[in-house]
């Protein structure tokens, strides 16, 4: 696993350099969903400090002890967040990348006010406007951002997207980067194991890489 992690880091560094972007312009979010705590520990031993998880319950089982041992560990929620899990999510995660609807924004604002814990939030943009997929439609992002910031006081720092499976991702990455630049948002989370180098070329500040680091996901038998 360490060799795969090093390979991904090297690819990011080379692509970043080729684009004329500075060192540290791109943060690697190592997506550890479905992988055991031992795999995360191996990545931590290799110097990785930023991780992504899809499910609140899985992260709760894996990360509190690791965060105690590694205070500089940063944990991102990259999967959908149900409102009944907001309390746990605000307590555990440092970044919530999937702010995708007004009801969730309200719940997050309420919990942050109650606890004074304020994880950064990224708005999930449905760049392909797929009806079955979560996220804010591109035309509605500006108004949603204003409501989140001005009325609710949420710490929104960026945008994220998951392009449609059958589309060329570059056009979605270009759309997201342009929106973030226009709105003055510094964080752009896009790109996964199959397309993270393309995402870096299009201005990603965060790439979410799982399989290319940890290998195939170990799913339990049905």
TrEMBL record:
CC cofactor: pyridoxal 5'-phosphate
Q: At what positions is N6-(pyridoxal phosphate)lysine found?
A: 33
A Pfam family hit: Ala_racemase_N
Domain Alanine racemase N-terminal stretches: 8-218
Q: Which GO terms describe its molecular function?
A: pyridoxal phosphate binding
Q: Which UniProt keywords apply?
A: Pyridoxal phosphate
**Which NCBIfam families does this chain map to?**
YggS family pyridoxal phosphate-dependent enzyme
Stated role: Pyridoxal 5'-phosphate (PLP)-binding protein, which is involved in PLP homeostasis.
Name of this chain's protein: Pyridoxal phosphate homeostasis protein
**Organism name:** Azospirillum lipoferum
Q: Tell me the lineage of the source organism.
A: Bacteria, Pseudomonadati, Pseudomonadota, Alphaproteobacteria, Rhodospirillales
